[in-house]
Queue: 3 jobs
Job 1
Amino acid sequence: MKRTMLFTLCLAAVVYTATTSCASRKSEPVKGESFASASAEIANGEIMYMKYCHKCHPAGEAGLGPAINSNPAPQFVKRFQVRHGLGVMPSFKKDEISSADLRDISKYIRAWKSY
């Protein structure tokens, strides 16, 4: 009885791993080109994004938070959510992320999304 239960649990773990871990990555292009910042604002936005956003939204994809790349909301709505926090999203006040840095993050997200 115990052997059957152990075998069933192991089989369930293997099936679960095989079906959930085969998601395709959308963050790296197949063409082999890497992202290059077109301006100083986008470069600063990339730095700020990596510092504040990347842990929950890795490369704009879903992580602890939802995917940003596939989110059709306008950039001002995303900036509002960063400032005020909605749901599990924490709020970032102006002394944490300045208005200029927040605009740069928005430009970076737009540039990355069109990349």
Job 2
Amino acid sequence: MPKAKESLRGLGAKYGGTVRKRYARVFRTLKAARECPSCASMKLKRSASGIWKCGSCGFTVAGGAYDVAPAKKA
């Protein structure tokens, strides 16, 4: 029996495997739980592209578009 795949909103079979895998990696990174640098709660969420806000203490920090710390280039 084949493995159950995680749901990807907005991408169907017509986009190809490589694009769906890339989108899945970005989506998982974006929706991962993050710790607030101010109050240490796990409620840090993205409010806009590059702006992250804690739902507990209201602390706002600027970061990367998909993660608080931008990805390092090689």
Job 3
Amino acid sequence: MKAKAAPKAILQQIARIQRMERGKLCPMGAGAYCNHQTWEKGRNRVRYVSREQVENLQKAIDGYQQYLKLTQAYADEIIRRTRQAQPAKPSRATKQTKRKRLKPL
């Protein structure tokens, strides 16, 4: 089983991300541009990006994806710790533990 990362370590990894951008890159055939598509204010926003800018933009998009994964891992770890700290309650009785009364014929 995978070892759980400490929340502090996850936050440090998040702090090391220097570039972020939402969206995705879509190549435009053999042209000199790519489409950068993002969702903003309820609408799809598209902008053209030159081939020279694609590498830096892709690194920023990858940074955002890494950020999302790390924040999910952070939330999962905090939730796990919260659940561990809660006192255990006896579970509800199941159908097997309840006695049913037999109806007279």
